[in-house]
Amino acid sequence: MSTPNGVMAGSPAVAAGRRPSGALWPTLRAIYIIWYRDVLRFWRDRTRLAVTFAQPLLYLIIFGTGLSSALSGGASGFGGAGAPAGFSYTQFIFPGIIGMSVLFGSMFAAVSIVWDREFGFLKELLVAPIDRSAVAIGKALGGATQAMAQGLILLVLAPIVGVKLTIVSVLTIIPLVFVLAFALSAMGVAIASRMRSMQGFQMVMNFLMMPMFFLSGALFPLAGLPGWMTFLTRIDPAAYGIDPLRRVLLEGAGMPPAALDRMSLTIGGTVVPIVAEAGILLAFGIVVLAIAVRNFRVRD
Q1: What is the pTM of this model?
Q2: pLDDT tens digits, one per residue of 29-43
Q3: Segment (H or E) for 266
């Protein structure tokens, strides 16, 4: 049977024309189900939760204690980072350890895509009567939620390392951690959407994560670096997430703004505002998520 325009009623053109009116709710529901499944699996994995807390703590103790002694000879300051007396290197790297937890959690959360592809669950999602963008968005939000939880749980260590938390600093940190987690999770999803084996995905992740971590400013200030390294740090998305975390946390701990500016991320000699850094991360996350959506829409 044809329509008044001469197009068959069951043709793809008519189906495509009808889809927008009723496709939004099924897509949103699919995003929620995919997000909920990933978060539930994370919550039920007690071993992963324990490692999530233990690994950053180990980094904090080893790097904080070892490098603090190496840089300052056991003194309370750490002249190499340009911080005033009374602030330790452990306090300096504490925001970086939070960022490290978010980075590792975000990127590895995308491993579920490769896992689901190998066991056939992803194929069932892709042939389901939902927009394939729901898979990418749901996975990105699920990974962001897991990574945000991994990062925020480390705030309980703040009093131990001498970082004072305030209500304002905590309320500021939460959206900053989420934006960082979202950008990195979307990046992980975009990469995983093109991978076909667990081994290949793990090799790519290991190749990317360590350089991203070391160039993010987690362990050293982003000022006074050689030109080539400065360039690499400015194209590292993790740097735009760890820098605002450090500025918020250490400012709340009483570090003078002038000292913070000497350690902060700059472009053209100007310190990048926290809002601008969050905007850069959000824009990056949206771009790589769009790439992930396109990858899923290509016939698998």
Answers
A1: 0.81
A2: 888 988 888 888 888
A3: strand 266-267
